[in-house]
Amino acid sequence: MMARNRVICRAVDVTKRYWRGKVAVDALRGVSLEIKSNDYVSIMGVSGSGKSTLIHILSCLDTPTSGEYYLEDKLVSNYTDEELARVRNTFFGFVFQSFSLLPRLTALDNVALPLIYAGTKKQDRILRAQEILEKIGLGDRMSHRPNEMSGGECQRVAIGRALVNNPRVIFADEPTGNLDSKTGAEIMEILDRLVDEGNTVVMVTHDSSLAAHAKKTVKLKDGMIEND
Ligand SMILES: Nc1ncnc2c1ncn2[C@@H]1O[C@H](COP(=O)(O)OP(=O)(O)O)[C@@H](O)[C@H]1O
Ligand SMILES: [Mg+2]
């Protein structure tokens, strides 16, 4: 596990402008922040405040319009497409509101999928996915497909998939948004535990009771960080 407090992600005055036809939409208007190893950060703000845009940039799914974004002190805009793809697959794990599992694959194969891109051998992929599924309490669901599992179980599989590569940062965008409150609380317990075990989690939510799980909260308003 990486040393605590080492800066992994650093955004400096990042902006993001989208175009809707001829109308500019300034989703981010100068955001600076750091994510350190073993941080537990919640990103809060009303719908449209730029939360998803920010984590897309932090996780290299999208690029800023202006400003700088560094990963472990390397300027991401200098990366080639290949380096960027590798970074995306090895640095980050993703958990989405909609689970985003592949419907035809079993829980085991969904969790093992990122290891195919990482070039891991089949036997090792299976062992690693089994180990992860046991760890998140799904040892008895390995051969179930998403439509044979509850929403909470599907989200746990998605967390397993996010973890399988030992990512530097796990990004979760409204991870409990499609779950009832009891199941949502179980998912939050897993995220809390991952941080206790040394992982780094950045979670988007508009729910302050969920944000309270994190050790640090970033409030976004109209594409800017709100200081209080
Ligand atoms: N691909 C896009 N094209 C145009 N506008 C977008 C796009 N993605 C997001 N936006 C706009 O940018 C703003 C911020 O969106 P988003 O980051 O999704 O906010 P949040 O996740 O906080 O709801 C919103 O006004 C949204 O409509
Ligand atoms: Mg969003």
Number of helices: 7
Q: Using only CA atoms, what is the Rg?
A: 17 Å
What is the CATH architecture annotation? 3-Layer(aba) Sandwich
- CATH class, anyone? Alpha Beta
Strand order of the largest sheet: 6-7-8-3-9-10
Give a short account of the largest sheet.
Answer: 6 strands, mixed
* Strand elements, count: 10
Uncertain parts: none
How would you characterize the overall build of this protein?
With 228 residues, the protein is an alpha/beta fold. It is built from seven helices and ten strands. It starts with 6 loop residues before the first strand and ends with a strand. The model has no long low-confidence stretch (mean pLDDT 95). It binds adenosine-5'-diphosphate and magnesium ion. Residues 18, 20, 25, 27, 45, 47-53 line the site of adenosine-5'-diphosphate.
